[in-house]
C-alpha cells in the first residue's frame, strides 16, 4: 500500500465521524441553539456504548462484530439522553447556551473518567481507566477498490463509514425536505415566525438538540473503534470542537460541511504520511496532529467574512419580546 | 348590544404593570366592514386587538366571536376562529422564499417515490400564486424574503392570513413603513378584501387613511373608548379633536427665521455603500445658525447617507465637512458629539436606543463619560437617576416605571421623546433629525415639530431629513431636493411649491 492510499484511507475514517458530529451540530444550531457541547456529547456517547459492550462481553462469541453495532446503538442513546441536559437548560430554563455547553463538556469528562475507573474496579474487578473494545473489522469493496488512487476510497473501510454516509443522507433529507426540517431551519432564523405559524418553537429545538446528541454519540463511538480501540479519557481530544469548526466553515450547511471535515481529515492523515516520508521520529507525528487546528485558524481568517450564521443563533427565545 | 356583530368586545379591561392599557372597552364589529381603531400611541389600540388575536388575555370582560363567547388563549386558537393579524413587526423567515413562509406550519405534503414524506413546494408555489392573483397582491412566490422590500413583505403577511382562511383581518399600523404609492396600493388591497366579504380591522393614527377606506371608526384615548363614529359623515377635524382630547392645530405657525453664521459646510461629499456604489454624489450645501435645512426626496435616494456621513456613522469617500470652522471629515463620532452634533436617527430602536437598558441609562447615552455622570472613571448612578427624572419631567416622557422602565416596553412616541430629549440637552450647534415623526401620532408629531422650531429659534442649525413632504413644506427654511444621490435643487422654502418639489423628487424636473 502506498503512502498516498494510506493517507486517503485514514483521512476518510477520521473525517466521517467528524462529519456526523458536525451534522448534529448543524441540527442544533440551525434550530437556533448554540451547541458547544458536542465534545462532551461524543465522549458520553462513546462511554455508554463502550460500557454496554463491556458489560455484555460474555454474551457474544469471540470475534463477533455484533457488539460494535450494539455499541453504536447505545452510544446514540447515551448521547441523546445526555443532550437532554443541554436541551432542558437552554430551552426550558433559558440558560446561557455557551455556558451550558462548556459545563456539559467538563461534566462529561469528569463523570466518564470517574465512572470508568469505578466500574472497572468494582464491577469487573480489574483496575483500569479504560474499556478495551478492540478494533473494528475492515473491508474493501471489490472492483471499485481496484481503481488506481481513487480506489483507496473503497479500500479498508470501517463498516461505520457506510453507516455514517447513510445516516448523513437521511439527515440531509429530513433537514431540507420535510416539514420538520423546514420548521427547524425557520426556528434558527426567526422563531417568532414559527410561533406565529402555530408550531411550538421549544419542541422543535428540543428535538434538534436530541438529534445532535445522538449523532455526536455515534461519532464518538466510531472514534473509539477506529483511532484508539478503547474508551478512555483520551477520547476528549477536542474532536468535538473540530466538528464545530467544520460546520462553521461549512456555513451551517451539510454538503459544504462535508468538504470542511474532509479537509481536516486529510490534513491529519497527510501529516502522518509526511512524517513517514521524511523519515522523522514518531514523536514528530504529534506535531503534525496540530495540522487540523492550524488549518482551522487559517480558514478562520479567510472564511469569517462570508459566513452567515443562523440569524437567531444563541438568542434566547422569549415569546413576548419583539 | 345589537345583533349582527361578527366580533363583540364587552367591558374589556387589561392592566400591565403601572398602566391600564384598556379600561372597560365595549365595541362591536360588523361582518364585511372596514373598522378602524384610531388613537394616539399608547392609547391601547394594539393591546385591544392583541387580545382578539390571543396574544394576551383580558383581565376583565368577554370576547364574543360570531355570537359565541370565546376564550382566545393563543394566536393558534385565533387562527382556528379565522382571525388573522398583520403585526407591525413582520414575522417572516428571511432566508425562506415567499411561498415557504406562507405554508410554514401547514405545509402541503407529498411522498417521494410514494414513500418518504416531503414538503410539496410546487403545490405551495402554485397556491401562493393563485391567492396572490385573486387579491391582486402581486408577489412572486419563489423570491426570498431578504430580497424583497418591506411593502412586499407586508403583502406576504396578508397572504399568510388568507392562506389560513382568515375572515377577520387585523392590520396593526400597516402604513407606518410604506411610501405614499405603497400606501395607495395597500388601501386598494384592503378595499378588495372587504368587497370579497372579509372583515377588516385597521389600527392606525393616520386620519387621512381612515377617511379613505374605513366604514366606521372607534376612537381610543389613554385606554378608554371615546366614541364610535360613522366615518363618511364625520369630519377629519372632529376625529382629530376626539383622538387627542383637545383642539388640534394643523398649521405649525412658523415664526420668521433669523439666520446667523454658517455652522455646517459640506463640500463635494461622496458616500459609497458597502458594495462600493456611490449613493451620495459630489454634494455640497451649507446650513446657518437659526436655519432649518430640509432634504426632500423619495426613500433610498441617499438622504439618510448624507445624515450618517455628517454624524460620522458612515465614512465619506471624498469631500470635506466643516463644523464651526473645524474639519470633521475624519473625526470619530464622539469627537463630533463633543464638537456639537446632535443626531436623531431614523431607526430609533436599533440606532437611537439600547432597548435593554432602562430609561435613565438611555437618556445619558451620549454624556455618561462626562461629569457628573462619571468622576475619575467611576460611574455615578445617582447622577443618572437625577438627570433622568429631570428629563422625564421636562419632556413629558411617559413610561410604566419612570426612569427604571426598560425602553423596549415603551411606546414608539415615548421612545422618540426620550431620544429627542437626550439630543436637545446636548445643546449642540448642529442638530440632525432623520424622519423624526415616523410612526408617531398627531399629538406627538405636533410636539416634535414645535421642539424643532424652538431649537431653530435658539440659533441652532438644523438638518432635517424627511419622506413626508408636508412636514418639509411646513418646517423648512431652505429645501434641498435629492434624487439619485444628487441635490438637484437647493432653494429657500418660500420659492418652491409642493408640486415643484415633488417633480424634483421624481427626477422629472432638472434645475
Would you tell me the structural class of the helices and strands of chain A?
mainly alpha
How many strands appear in the DSSP assignment of chain B?
24
- What oligomeric state do the depicted chains represent? heterodimer
- State the order of secondary-structure elements of chain A, H for helix, E for strand: HHHHEHHHHEHHHH
Poorly predicted residue ranges of chain B:
none
Shape of chain A: globular
Count of DSSP helices of chain B? 17
Radius of gyration of chain B, whole Å: 25 Å
Q: Biggest β-sheet of chain B: count, sense, barrel? A: 6 strands, mixed
Order of the strands making up the biggest sheet of chain A: 1-2
Helix/strand/pairing class of chain B, anyone? alpha/beta
Mass-distribution shape of chain B:
globular
Strand content of chain B: 25-35%
Largest interface: A-B, 21 and 25 residues
Per-chain topology:
The complex is a heterodimer of chains A (322) and B (511).
Chain A: H1 3-30, H2 38-55, H3 66-92, H4 97-122, E1 131-132, H5 159-177, H6 179-189, H7 191-196, H8 201-228, E2 230-231, H9 239-249, H10 254-277, H11 283-288, H12 291-303
Helix pairs in contact in A: 1-5, 1-8, 1-9, 1-10, 2-3, 2-4, 2-8, 2-9, 3-4, 3-8, 5-6, 6-8, 9-10, 9-12, 10-12
Chain B: E1 5-16, E2 19-30, E3 34-39, H1 45-52, E4 60-65, E5 68-70, H2 75-80, E6 83-86, H3 98-103, E7 109-112, E8 116-119, H4 121-134, H5 150-163, E9 168-172, H6 180-195, E10 199-204, H7 207-213, E11 216-221, E12 224-230, H8 236-244, E13 262-272, E14 278-288, E15 292-296, H9 303-311, E16 318-323, E17 326-327, H10 333-339, E18 341-344, H11 348-352, H12 359-363, E19 374-375, E20 378-379, H13 381-395, H14 412-424, E21 430-434, H15 442-457, E22 461-466, H16 469-475, E23 478-483, E24 486-492, H17 498-505
Helix pairs in contact in B: 13-14
Describe this entry's structure for a reader:
The complex is a heterodimer of chains A (322) and B (511). Chain A has 322 residues and is mainly alpha-helical. Chain A has twelve helices and two strands. Chain A has helices spanning 3-30, 38-55, 66-92, 97-122, 159-177, 179-189, 191-196, 201-228, 239-249, 254-277, 283-288, 291-303; strands at residues 131-132, 230-231. In chain A, helix 2 (38-55) packs across helix 9 and helix 3 packs antiparallel against helix 4. Chain A starts with a helix and ends in a 19-residue tail after the last helix. In chain B, strand 21 (430-434), helix 15 (442-457) and strand 22 (461-466) form a beta-alpha-beta unit. The longest helix of chain B is centred in the middle third of the chain and has 16 residues, at 180-195. Chain B contains 17 helices and 24 strands. In chain B, the strands form six sheets. Chain B has a six-stranded mixed sheet with strand order 6-9-10-3-11-12, sandwiched between helices. The relative contact order of chain B is 0.10. The A-B interface holds A 173, 177-179, 182-183, 185-186, 189-190, 192-199, 311, 321-322 and B 75-76, 79, 87, 89, 91-96, 100-101, 104-107, 109, 112, 116-119, 160, 408.
Amino acid at each position: 500500500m502506498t503512502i498516498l492510499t494510506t493517507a486517503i484511507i485514514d483521512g476518510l475514517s477520521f473525517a466521517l465521524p467528524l462529519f456526523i458530529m458536525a451534522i448534529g451540530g448543524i441540527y442544533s444550531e440551525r434550530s437556533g441553539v448554540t451547541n458547544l457541547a458536542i465534545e462532551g456529547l461524543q465522549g458520553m456517547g462513546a462511554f455508554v456504548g463502550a460500557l454496554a459492550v463491556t458489560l455484555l462481553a460474555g454474551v457474544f462469541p469471540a470475534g463477533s462484530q455484533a457488539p460494535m453495532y450494539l455499541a453504536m446503538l447505545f452510544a446514540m442513546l447515551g448521547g441523546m439522553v445526555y443532550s437532554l441536559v443541554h436541551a432542558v437548560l437552554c430551552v426550558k430554563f433559558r440558560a446561557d447556551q455557551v455556558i451550558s455547553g462548556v459545563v456539559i463538556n467538563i461534566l462529561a469528562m469528569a463523570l466518564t473518567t470517574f465512572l470508568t475507573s469505578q466500574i472497572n474496579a468494582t464491577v469487573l474487578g480489574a483496575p483500569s481507566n479504560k474499556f478495551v473494545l478492540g478494533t473494528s473489522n475492515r473491508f474493501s469493496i471489490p472492483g471499485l477498490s481496484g481503481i488506481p488512487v481513487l480506489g483507496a476510497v473503497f479500500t479498508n473501510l470501517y463498516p461505520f463509514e457506510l453507516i455514517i454516509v447513510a445516516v448523513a443522507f437521511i439527515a440531509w433529507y429530513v433537514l431540507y425536505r420535510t416539514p420538520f426540517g423546514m420548521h427547524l431551519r425557520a426556528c434558527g432564523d426567526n422563531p417568532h415566525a414559527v410561533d406565529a405559524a402555530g408550531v411550538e418553537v421549544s419542541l422543535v429545538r428540543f428535538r434538534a438538540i436530541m438529534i445532535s446528541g445522538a449523532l455526536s454519540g455515534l461519532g464518538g463511538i466510531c472514534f473509539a473503534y477506529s483511532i484508539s480501540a478503547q474508551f478512555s479519557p483520551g477520547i476528549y481530544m477536542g474532536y468535538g470542537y473540530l466538528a464545530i469548526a467544520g460546520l462553521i466553515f461549512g456555513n451551517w450547511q451539510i454538503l459544504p460541511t462535508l468538504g470542511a471535515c474532509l479537509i481536516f481529515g486529510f490534513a491529519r492523515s497527510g501529516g502522518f504520511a509526511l512524517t513517514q516520508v521524511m523519515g522523522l521520529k514518531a514523536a514528530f507525528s504529534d506535531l503534525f496532529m496540530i495540522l487540523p487546528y492550524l488549518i482551522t485558524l487559517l480558514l478562520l481568517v479567510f472564511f469569517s467574512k462570508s459566513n452567515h450564521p443562523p440569524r437567531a443563533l444563541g438568542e434566547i427565545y422569549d415569546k413576548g419580546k419583539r | 348590544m345589537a345583533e349582527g356583530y361578527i366580533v363583540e368586545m364587552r367591558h374589556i379591561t387589561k392592566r400591565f404593570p403601572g398602566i391600564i392599557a384598556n379600561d372597560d372597552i365595549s365595541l362591536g364589529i360588523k361582518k364585511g366592514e372596514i373598522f378602524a381603531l384610531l388613537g394616539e400611541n399608547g392609547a391601547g389600540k394594539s393591546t385591544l386587538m392583541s387580545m382578539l388575536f390571543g396574544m394576551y388575555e383580558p383581565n376583565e370582560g368577554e370576547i364574543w366571536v360570531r355570537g359565541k363567547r370565546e376564550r382566545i388563549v393563543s394566536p393558534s386558537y385565533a387562527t382556528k376562529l379565522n382571525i388573522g393579524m398583520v403585526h407591525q413587526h413582520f414575522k417572516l423567515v428571511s432566508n425562506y422564499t415567499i411561498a415557504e413562509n406562507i405554508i410554514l406550519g401547514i405545509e402541503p405534503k407529498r411522498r417521494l417515490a410514494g414513500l418518504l414524506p416531503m414538503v410539496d413546494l410546487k403545490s405551495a408555489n402554485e397556491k401562493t400564486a393563485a391567492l396572490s392573483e385573486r387579491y391582486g397582491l402581486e408577489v412572486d412566490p419563489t423570491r426570498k424574503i431578504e430580497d424583497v422590500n418591506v411593502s412586499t413583505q407586508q403583502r406576504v403577511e396578508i397572504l399568510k392570513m388568507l392562506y389560513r382562511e382568515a375572515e377577520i383581518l387585523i392590520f396593526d399600523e400597516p402604513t407606518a413603513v410604506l411610501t405614499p404609492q405603497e400606501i395607495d396600493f395597500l388601501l386598494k388591497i384592503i378595499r378588495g378584501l372587504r368587497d370579497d366579504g372579509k372583515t377588516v380591522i385597521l389600527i392606525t393614527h393616520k386620519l387621512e387613511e381612515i377617511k379613505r377606506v374605513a366604514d366606521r371608526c372607534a376612537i381610543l384615548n389613554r385606554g378608554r373608548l371615546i366614541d364610535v363614529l360613522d366615518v363618511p359623515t364625520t369630519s377629519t377635524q372632529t376625529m382629530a379633536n376626539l383622538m387627542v382630547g383637545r383642539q388640534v392645530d394643523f398649521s405649525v405657525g412658523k415664526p420668521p427665521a433669523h439666520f446667523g453664521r454658517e455652522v455646517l459646510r459640506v463640500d463635494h461629499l461622496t458616500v459609497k455603500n458597502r458594495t462600493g456604489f456611490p449613493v451620495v454624489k459630489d454634494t455640497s450645501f451649507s446650513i446657518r445658525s437659526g436655519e432649518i435645512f430640509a432634504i426632500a426626496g423619495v426613500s433610498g435616494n441617499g438622504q439618510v447617507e448624507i445624515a450618517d456621513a455628517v454624524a460620522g456613522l458612515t465614512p465619506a469617500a471624498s469631500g470635506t465637512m466643516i463644523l464651526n470652522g473645524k474639519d470633521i471629515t475624519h473625526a470619530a463620532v464622539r469627537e463630533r458629539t463633543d464638537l456639537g452634533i446632535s443626531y436623531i436617527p431614523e431607526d430609533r430602536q436599533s440606532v437611537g436606543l439600547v432597548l435593554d437598558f432602562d430609561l435613565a441609562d438611555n437618556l445619558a447615552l451620549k454624556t455618561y463619560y462626562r461629569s457628573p455622570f462619571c468622576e475619575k472613571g467611576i460611574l455615578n448612578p445617582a447622577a443618572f437617576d437625577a438627570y433622568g427624572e429631570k428629563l422625564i419631567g421636562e419632556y413629558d416622557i411617559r413610561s410604566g416605571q419612570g426612569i427604571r422602565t426598560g425602553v423596549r416596553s415603551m411606546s414608539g412616541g415615548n421612545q422618540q421623546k426620550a431620544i429627542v430629549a437626550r439630543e436637545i440637552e446636548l445643546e449642540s450647534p448642529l442638530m440632525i433629525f432623520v424622519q423624526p415623526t415616523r410612526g408617531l401620532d398627531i399629538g406627538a408629531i405636533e410636539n416634535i415639530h414645535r421642539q424643532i422650531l424652538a431649537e431653530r429659534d435658539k440659533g441652532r442649525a438644523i438638518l432635517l431629513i424627511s419622506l413626508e413632504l408636508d412636514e418639509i413644506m411646513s418646517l423648512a427654511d431652505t429645501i434641498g431636493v435629492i434624487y439619485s444621490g444628487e441635490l438637484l435643487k437647493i432653494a429657500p422654502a418660500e420659492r418652491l411649491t409642493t408640486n415643484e418639489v415633488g417633480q424634483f423628487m421624481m427626477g422629472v424636473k432638472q434645475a
